[in-house]
Specification:
By secondary structure, the chain is an all-alpha fold. Helix content is about 65%, strand content about 0%.
Length: about 100
Amino acid sequence: MSSDIEHNPGVVVSMGITESKVPMLRATTRWDYVSRFLAVWKEYVRFQIYYGVLLILGIYLLFVQPVLAVPALAGAAYFYQLKEFRKERTLRSKRTVIIGH
């Protein structure tokens, strides 16, 4: 059996050593963990509200003033994406958390 390196001459095995100033696995208290992600969760809630308001406004403006409906619906799509990014980071996170006391 031959390895993939022999078949792919562009593949190089290497290793890098870095010095991290912040430990990768840091044991903290529950309050420290929650307070670190509280700002991201608040952004998630804020973007969800912006998305809902702009979506309702865009649908309303679609029948009243179609020219203004375009930026409202574009803003709703933008805030929907931001909301989903924040949801992935907080609510759907699969990270292993090491919590101290």
